[in-house]
Design brief:
Elements: H1 9-15, E1 19-24, E2 29-32, H2 34-40, E3 59-63, E4 67-75, E5 80-87, H3 89-108, H4 114-128, E6 133-139, E7 145-152, H5 160-169, H6 175-182, E8 186-188, H7 191-197, H8 202-209, E9 216-223, E10 226-234, H9 243-308, H10 315-343, H11 348-351, H12 353-368, E11 371-377, H13 388-409, E12 413-421, E13 428-435, H14 442-446, H15 450-461, E14 465-470, E15 476-483, E16 488-489
Parallel strand pairs: 11-12
Antiparallel strand pairs: 1-2, 1-5, 3-4, 4-5, 6-7, 6-10, 7-16, 8-9, 9-10, 12-13, 13-15, 14-15
Helix pairs in contact: 3-4, 3-9, 4-9, 9-10, 12-13, 13-15
């Protein structure tokens, strides 16, 4: 040993794991050690622009495709600065992922709107890993149709599912279907280039072109092992999906699945509450109002009978009053019985809309003697999978239209039809109630009373349309059209499921 250090300063800089560089007043590299060159992905940085801002503060800066450097900067001379930096991309991404998972967990029980929860969750996934785009799709109760419930990144496309279906029919592989049916994550490197080069993706190519992306992952949303949706992640160029990134997607998919499950539980609880309230109202009406009105009718009949036996009263007056009371009480009793029937929980929530309509027709015929025919065009039982509140509103409109026919038409037959129309992803629920009665004049058909107003409000709630067609002596028809949310069949024969 001659007393000299084992390494001189140059050797030490060469072997440091952290990047060390000198930058000039314009922010350009003057010198850089091997670690700095490796971190920046350039063998020769001299003269290249650095990512570091002016000044001597410490901080974090971005570099390239989503990478982040933590740096410390010190002044060397009046025109040059020394900067020491290291790659903190994964550690900071890990922190953002943890924050995103915690935020998503807090949203699940705090916001009753599934759409807003999943939209927020999609943004958190996007921002945590600096992705190009994120989609969260859910399926209906039967697991038969997809619907976009959360998205971030790609711009909106009003006919997205129509275009996606066109791609599938042209032979495009929808790898998200693989993830859904297999209940396993699907990771596809270089997916962007494959999509842009495949003619089958032509209908959606422009929509998916920007922002540019590369790798693709689709993760199923599982509730008790059953798929309720999928989370699609589109990664920015230069990003790869490693084990940590996939674990994060799985964790966020779990949060999304919990949100779907929670929303379904809330829907069931609301339905139970509505049914219990209807039962209470029906019971109260039957125990009080209906019996009182029935008693009024009996008293009126008794008064008429007394007057008819020659009691010392103005018999003509009493008979007239008795007749009027009898007619009024019978009319009120009929209306109240209809209300009691309508207030009872409909079977649409448990048995579907078709079953509810057949029971409605049966009860109406038994009560009124009117012939009521029901035709349901639903070979795939899609009506049973409609949102419960939409089903309920459609049933109430049909029930009110039928009640109007019973009360006003003076006809002998009413027909009820229901079914779905429209192509693939754009569908309408179409229901119609038509009678062979005396019809309505133009003013009444156009405006109507409280019942008609309520029917129009129920249709407007779903951006639907209610049309009344009638003419004196020609019967009346009430047509309800409700647009259903855009959706995609979960099973498409044209797809190759691998």
């Amino acid at each position: 040993m001659d007393g000299r250090p084992l390494f001189d300063a140059t050797t030490l800089l060469e072997r440091l794991p952290d990047g060390v560089a000198v930058i000039d007043a314009g922010g350009r590299f003057v010198q850089a050690n091997p670690a700095a060159r490796a971190l920046c992905g350039d063998a020769d940085l001299v003269g290249a622009d650095s990512p570091f801002p002016a000044g001597t503060a410490d901080g974090v800066v971005g570099w390239g495709a989503g990478r982040e450097f933590a740096y410390q900067m010190r002044e060397l001379t009046g025109r040059e600065r020394l900067v020491v930096f290291r790659d903190v991309t994964e550690s900071r991404r890990h922190q953002r992922r943890l924050a995103a998972i915690a935020s998503a967990a807090g949203r699940v029980g705090g916001d009753p709107s599934l759409g807003s929860v999943l939209d927020a969750l999609a943004r958190e996934v996007l921002e945590a890993d600096a992705l190009a785009s994120v989609q969260i799709m859910t399926v209906n109760a039967a697991g038969a149709r997809f619907q976009v419930m959360g998205s971030a990144g790609f711009g909106p496309a009003a006919n997205f599912f129509d275009l996606l279906l066109d791609c599938a029919e042209a032979g495009a592989e929808l790898r998200m279907i693989d993830a859904f049916t297999s209940r396993l994550p699907v990771v596809v490197p270089g997916r962007y280039a494959a999509v842009m080069a495949d003619p089958a993706w032509e209908p959606l190519r422009e929509h998916m072109r920007h922002p540019e992306w590369d790798w693709f992952a689709s993760v199923p949303l599982l509730v008790r092992g059953e798929p309720v949706g999928i989370l699609n992640a589109f990664y920015a160029p230069g990003q790869e999906i490693n084990g940590t990134a996939l674990d994060f997607l799985l964790a966020m998919a779990d949060q999304a699945a919990m949100a779907v499950h929670y929303a379904a539980m809330l829907d069931r609880e609301r339905e139970v509450a509505r049914r219990e309230e209807r039962q209470r109202l029906a019971r109260d009406l039957h125990d009080s109002v209906v019996q009182h009105v029935f008693s009024m009718g009996m008293q009126a009949e008794s008064l008429g009978m007394t007057s008819g036996r020659g009691a010392k009263v103005d018999s003509a007056y009493v008979v007239r009053v008795a007749g009027e009371l009898g007619q009024i009480s019978k009319a009120v009793l009929t209306d109240l019985r209809v209300m009691v029937t309508d207030l009872h929980p409909t079977p649409s929530a448990d048995q579907g809309l078709a079953a509810a309509l057949f029971l409605l027709a049966e009860s109406t015929m038994g009560r009124t003697g009117l012939e009521v025919a029901v035709t349901v065009d639903d070979p795939r039982h899609d009506l049973d999978d409609l949102e419960s509140e939409l089903r309920e509103d459609a049933y109430r409109v049909i029930a009110e239209a039928l009640h109007n026919s019973v009360k006003h038409s003076r006809g002998g037959r009413v027909t009820i039809t229901a079914g779905l129309s429209g192509r693939g992803t754009r569908r309408l629920l179409v229901c119609e109630v038509a009678d062979d009665g005396r019809g309505l004049d133009a003013a009444t058909a156009g405006e109507g009373g409280f019942g008609m107003t309520t029917m129009r409000e129920r249709a407007a709630r779903w951006s639907g349309r209610l049309t009344v067609r009638s003419e004196p002596g020609g019967g009346t028809s009430v047509r309800l059209e409700l647009p259903l949310p855009a959706s995609l069949p979960a099973e498409i024969p044209a797809l190759r499921i691998t």
